[in-house]
């Protein structure tokens, strides 16, 4: 090793016989001979010190120099300088420039993990390990995982994940497009390989992609679409007295027929207080078209209870959209015999509305769904007065 402080120089391996070695400010360290350069209980540097390395080939010691220390070394404050004379260099070589049996702590001045550094005419990156420092070829990012389309219920969490190879390790920036991919903008603080957020109504149809960048270049993932899983009870009607139809949109790219045929949809029922859970059979009631699923319970309505409150309850429709055996998506609704205005209770307002609609076929006020509003409907509402869905039970339609 050559030590040059300006005032004096030292040539040869240093052995402190178990003591520490701290170098004066302004010292230049140039490993010049094969083997161990320093045997010490601790090697440290001062501000303004320089580690000068020669790179004339790909063989350590013989053709490129390495700071080799028996013991630990602290790199804080030292500046790395390279003297490169390697005409045959291809840019694929790796150079282990520091090797310390006791471990490497700190980093070169101005060079953190993954920082770019030129070795001759080639782009390299600094790689710190527990016992060494390497100069590794910079490799442009390559996408290894693009995000998948996501279908969630409004207000739930959407999660997108992407990955890329590259050296140094690429940084990531998520982007969003709100116009079908024509324009993209960065998402603030979305700089991890996984991007999760709570959805709001305006997110439906947005696209998301990840851009990976390092000193050798950048790569952009394919775009993924966020779509909402929606539930329509009774085809737009607000009444919850007679429930025959459920219509579910499972999101862009979903194959609803596969969901139906592989039993990845189920219906659970609790009472009006949200207590209990029982399975409600769907066999024979399901059909699929594209990304849409329809449930038709027939003229008798849900649980065959068009003329009684036996079908009353708080229902949860569960779906396994990603075919991983987990029913991760839940859509909630209720049935309350006599509730024609959809306010989660049966009271005088329902009775008044049904009475006013007598003699019509308005399905909104047809309590039992038999096609006519008559005195039977009024009587049914009167008998159900006071029944209600417990407050605090969320519904999705």
Note down, in words, how this protein is organized.
This protein is mainly beta and 397 residues long. Helices cover 6% and strands 39% of the residues. The protein has helices at residues 256-261, 348-356, 375-384; strands at residues 2-4, 9-11, 14-15, 20-22, 28-30, 38-39, 42-44, 50-55, 67-70, 73-74, 79-84, 95-100, 104-105, 116-119, 122-128, 132-137, 139-145, 150-152, 157-161, 163-167, 171-177, 185-186, 194-198, 207-214, 217-220, 224-228, 230-233, 245-249, 265-270, 278-280, 286-289, 292-296, 313-319, 329-335. The chain has a seven-stranded mixed beta sheet, with no helix packed on it. Strands 18, 21, 22, 24, 25 and 26 form a six-stranded mixed beta sheet that branches. A hairpin with a 2-residue loop joins strand 14 (116-119) and strand 15. It is rod-shaped, with a radius of gyration of 35 Å.
Summarize the structure.
The chain is mostly beta strands and 397 residues long.
Question: Secondary-structure map with pairings?
Answer:
Elements: E1 2-4, E2 9-11, E3 14-15, E4 20-22, E5 28-30, E6 38-39, E7 42-44, E8 50-55, E9 67-70, E10 73-74, E11 79-84, E12 95-100, E13 104-105, E14 116-119, E15 122-128, E16 132-137, E17 139-145, E18 150-152, E19 157-161, E20 163-167, E21 171-177, E22 185-186, E23 194-198, E24 207-214, E25 217-220, E26 224-228, E27 230-233, E28 245-249, H1 256-261, E29 265-270, E30 278-280, E31 286-289, E32 292-296, E33 313-319, E34 329-335, H2 348-356, H3 375-384
Helix pairs in contact: 2-3
């Amino acid at each position: 090793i050559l030590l040059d402080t300006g005032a004096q120089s030292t040539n040869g391996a240093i052995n402190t016989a178990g003591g520490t070695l701290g170098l004066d400010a302004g010292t230049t360290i140039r490993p010049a001979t094969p083997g161990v350069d320093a045997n010490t209980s601790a090697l440290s540097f001062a501000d303004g010190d320089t580690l000068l390395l020669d790179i004339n080939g790909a063989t350590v010691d013989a053709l490129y120099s390495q700071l080799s220390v028996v013991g630990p070394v602290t790199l804080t404050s030292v500046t790395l300088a390279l003297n490169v004379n390697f005409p045959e260099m291809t840019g694929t070589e790796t150079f282990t420039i520091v090797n310390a049996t006791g471990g490497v702590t700190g980093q070169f001045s101005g060079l953190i993990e993954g920082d770019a550094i030129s070795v001759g005419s080639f782009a390299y990156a600094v790689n710190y390990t527990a016992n060494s420092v390497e100069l590794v070829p910079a490799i442009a990012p390559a996408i290894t995982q693009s995000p998948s389309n996501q279908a969630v219920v409004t207000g739930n969490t959407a999660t997108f994940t992407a990955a890329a190879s590259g050296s140094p390790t690429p940084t990531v920036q998520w982007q969003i497009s709100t116009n079908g991919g024509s324009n993209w903008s960065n998402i603030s603080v979305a700089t991890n390989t996984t991007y999760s957020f709570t959805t709001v109504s305006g997110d439906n149809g947005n696209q998301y992609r990840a851009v990976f960048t390092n000193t050798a270049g950048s790569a952009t993932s394919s775009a993924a679409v966020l779509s909402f899983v929606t539930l329509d009870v009774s085809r737009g009607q607000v009444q919850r007295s007679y429930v025959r139809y459920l219509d579910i949109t499972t999101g862009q790219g979903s194959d609803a027929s596969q969901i139906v045929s592989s039993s990845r949809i189920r219906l659970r029922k609790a009472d009006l207080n949200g207590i209990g859970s029982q399975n409600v059979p769907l066999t024979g009631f399901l059909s699929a078209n594209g990304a849409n699923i329809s449930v038709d319970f027939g003229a008798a309505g849900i649980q065959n209870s068009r003329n009684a409150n036996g079908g009353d309850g708080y229902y949860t429709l569960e779906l396994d959209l990603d075919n991983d055996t987990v029913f991760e998506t839940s859509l909630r609704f209720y049935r309350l015999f006599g509730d024609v205005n959809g306010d989660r209770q049966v009271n005088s307002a329902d009775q008044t509305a049904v009475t006013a609609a007598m003699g019509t076929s308005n399905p909104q006020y047809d309590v039992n769904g038999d096609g006519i509003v008559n005195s039977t409907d009024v009587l049914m509402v009167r008998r159900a007065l006071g029944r209600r869905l417990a407050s605090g039970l969320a519904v999705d339609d």
